[in-house]
Please model this.
Amino acid sequence: MLKKLFILVFVGILGAVFASPMFGQEADPLLAPGTTVPFTVDADRSATFSVDLTADGFAQFAWAAGEDSSFLYEIADSAGKSLQKGDSGWVKAAYFVAPKQGVYSIRLYIDPKAEDKKTQSGTLTYKNDFTIPKGGKVKASRKLAGYDVQLVDVADTDDTPGDSFVIVKKGGVIKNLLHSDFSSPIMGYSFSGLVEKNAPASEKRAAALINNTPDKTGDGNPDVMLEYYSGGAHCCTTYYFIELPKSGPVAIREVDTGNAGMIPISKAASGGLRFETADNAWAYWNMSFAGSPMPSVILEFKDGVAKPNFALMKKPAPSMAVLKRKAAAASKKISNDPYTEPSMDFEDAFWSEMIDLAFTGHEDLAWQYFDLVWPKAKPGKAKFLADFKETLAGSYYGEK
Model:
């Protein structure tokens, strides 16, 4: 009897030890609707809270912190899969619709790459319903496949920045929601496929492809294509494809194209549309924006992700005689000053030829061209090549 009692006590002690915060097993606080809780984050500490949601359950997480506060947030499911990320420097709340019943968490944390990792404190408020903020107006709407998709803008006031929403409903129930800040009429979300009567024929063809192709991503569901412009020069365009299935969760596909835009050019053989965009990775790299090369990229959706179709991008290889002639002409424009780091001191972006060769299926020729074009008397060849390859590897398309 005493032996059994000892075992039970020992097991109980172990359970208490391994459930303690010391071992990281303490459950995140489970918030109730209408709850406001304090939080503190720093370089070594994040703040995590959980909510219990039904399928299509709605959650709004709003934070209040200092004016100079800047932290990141991440919403994940019970398995730890990341479902949404954002930056408090751009938005003041996160909006989330649960794809299925379960416990979901929101984590607030300091960007590991941030130079300033000072401690930040504030409060987080959780609500489980959504109403259009005061002053919000429906800018445009579409009805498709039993869904109602509304674009709503909330103008800036003297005290608060505005908002831009995309609200997706079916049978009066919110199925998904997009949100971003808003500060001018030209910013925010808009439906793709709109074209003026006097637009060029190419724009009308692109609009016709969007408007006459219900399933633009090729996944078997009709969808709505949106574009979001965040303001600013040489950047800031993101496209969204809102999937509208007969049943189940509404997925939203995101394609960030920066300055390039995303133009439909034809229908893909596997279904959906084929798009043309450009790689922005070399914008301002050793060159002004106007002179920066931006290679053309053809995209098709596969498993919900817009991916390059390199087979369609491939071109016949130029002859070595042509490469030598181009290299000789470009080399004359390169000074013999040492290259030490990326800076805007090149007269011509000779690496445009290297990029074009790599993106059209001839990467081996790109390196041969580089050996031909680089002046023998110019120091820094290895450094330049390393910087170029690093930029290529950091490109969304180049890494593929």
